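WP5 quarterly update. Target: Adenylate kinase. Source organism: Photinus pyralis. Length: 166 aa.
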Amino acid sequence: MVNVPVPELIAEHVKNNTDFGKAIKAALTADEKVSDVPIAHFVLRELKGIGDKSFIVTGFPKTYRQAILLWKDLEFNFVINLDYPKEYLVRFKVGGVDESGTEEEKEKRVALAMENIAKDQKRLSSLIEFYKKQKILQHFYSNTEEEMWKKVKKGVEVRLVALSKT
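Structure tokens (predicted):
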């Protein structure tokens, strides 16, 4: 199974100064949103390049439009949604930040993390609904990473067995 880590692949193109990477860098430098179309086409090229192998795409799609663009050319067998409690996500987002600073600064970091989590959840809700309608969403909830990966592993194994029988 091939892992296709989309954000890392895009970062690699930016680092290597490819034409695609230059376009991404120019948009980011100008503080512009990168269009969904070139990103979706990039991912499709990457996926078509792996042939008939099974794959896992991480970090994509990030928008409903990207999901639709991808789905037009490539239907997935299933999509995994990892769902953690907000407290876990806040610790994850704030945890790597330098703990120095005043209590007020720490509270601001937590508030910003909560705001970003709310934005992410709002953005992802349309994706989740889209994949539910396609009947391919596998939703996993956990309080810990270790428990999450046990659930995902079991869920994926069950789904792969079911797919092999169709």
